[in-house]
Amino acid sequence: MIKGAIFDVDGTLLDSMEIWEDAGVRYLRRIGVEPEKNLSEILYPMTMTEGAEYVKERYRLTFALDEIVQGVLDTVRDFYFYEASVKPGAKKLLSWMKEKNIPMAAATASDREHIEAAFKRLGIDGYFGRIFTCSEVGAGKRHPLIYEKAAAYLKAEPGEILVFEDAFYALVTAKNAGFRTVGVYDRFSEDEQEALSRQADIYLRNLTDWKWKERMIL
Which phi and psi angles does 110 have, rounded to 5°? Predict the structure, then answer.
């Protein structure tokens, strides 16, 4: 029987992955500069500092590098504070779990301040006993530490916990650590969906799909 659930946030509960592709574009438009059409693709493999160096040179910006980096970070922050939306069906799913007395935790690679602000604005903060972040536990999701910390908080064994993830690599990490996994479709990881659906114990094209409910509590 399932005794707990761990939810990834970006791309799983929140429709928020777009900001990580468009932050540079949004930043430039905020300062009155029109970006090139493929800027997101150019910046995607770069670090924040590398991206700042690129836009400074390409668009002849007079700002210092640290000012550009901070401007991008502020753009990301504003997205979570004022714009990020909850994915369809998420609230009903969380409410259903609460009714079943299944304790829940969130596990995210994003900044705590951003996620707490978005959860509160969207009215889903009360569903989670605790939010775990990769930066605070000291490891990303290629290591199972964040899931293990959450499991200890939930006071359940990995095999008694469902982990909801939209990213293939993160779901594989959780599954290899013994957790029961739920793959969640996200449009920003379209190329991973076939692999995600094969690897996950349960795969959801949409959180409004309730056909798997009975399987959850077996």
Answer: -85, 170
**The sheet that has 104-108: what strands, in order across it?**
130-133, 104-108, 4-7, 161-165, 180-184, 202-204
How large is the average pLDDT for residues 185-214? 87
Q: Which amino acid is at 203?
A: Y
pTM of the model: 0.90
Place of tokens 């990303």: 140
DSSP 187: G
What residue segments make up the domains of the chain, in order of their start?
Answer: 4-16+85-216, 18-82
pLDDT classification of 211: cutoffs 50, 70, 90? low
Q: Return the ∠ at Cα 142 (arms to 165 and 6), rounded to 5°.
A: 35
Give the DSSP letter string of 48-111: HHHHHHHHHHHTT--S-HHHHHHHHHHHHHHHHHHT-EEPTTHHHHHHHHHHTT--EEEEESS-
Q: Who contacts 128 (Cβ-Cβ below 8 Å, separation ≥6)? A: 7, 104, 105, 106, 119
Q: Using DSSP, state whether 192 is helix, strand or coil.
A: helix
What band does 45 get if pLDDT is binned at 50, 70 and 90? Answer: confident
4-16+85-216 maps to CATH 1.10.260.40 = no
